[in-house]
Amino acid sequence: MYNDSFGNSLKRGYRGLPVAIRTLITLNVGVFILQVLLGIISPAYSKALIDAFAFYPEWQTALFQPWRAFTYMFLHGGTFHLVFNMLWLWWMGRAVEESLGPKTFSVIYLGAGIGGALFNIVAAPLLGFNPVIGASGAVYGIMVSFAMLYPTMPIMLILLPPIQARYVVAGLIAIDALLLGSSDGTARIVHLAGAGVGYLLMKSQQRGSGLGKWLIPVEQLWYRIKNIYQQKKSRPKNDHMYSVSDVEIIDETEQSELDEILEKISEKGYDGLTDAEKKKLFELSKKN
Fold it and tell me: What residues does CATH 1.20.1540.10 cover in the chain?
């Protein structure tokens, strides 16, 4: 009974996560499990996965293998590395996504991670051409965004009194700056650059740039592909084309309404929706 209750609570907590954070945590944990399984079969397999998708701070590699600036964020060097990143992402990222919406959140997260990796190319001649893995640069961008949105929010740390978010994040950045160039194998320049890019993106969002609109074309393409697949799957075998046409007209109307609501969320956040729009979003999400 206790195990069932704990399992159900865990499922509810997971399903209750904002969509972007839930997706990112799932991908990171899934890739880490793959790393572990490959390592059990043969350490060479796990190494081959890292060699194929880690980021190498060399302009030639970045130019001809650009996917590495994205894929390196989903690889981790150990359990602690993964848990540390995912806890900070869950802890601070939830409030950021709920305030800005999933698209704007995703732009800041990916922008900080990619920007941190690319800046490492500039710093590599001084700090070394070492491969980089981990979501830390992206997570630092989200942490900075949290501190900008909720600067006085008290953060509880072990054995310490409550500290305001701005000081916690500033302290973590200061530690990385002090240890920059150390031989502990941590890509601290990626952390610092990710924090810097996160700050710039958050400032841009606060000035009204609407970062979420960058992902609207991707999202619309995804929904179109999904609708085409669903229509083909549900198409009847007889020739009553008038009923198929009616369904397609309704789908297109609902999709247009959904696109408008999602665009509004990207600009003003979820709280910017009216009660009617929130109800409509819930109804459409159940259909999708």
Answer: 2-209
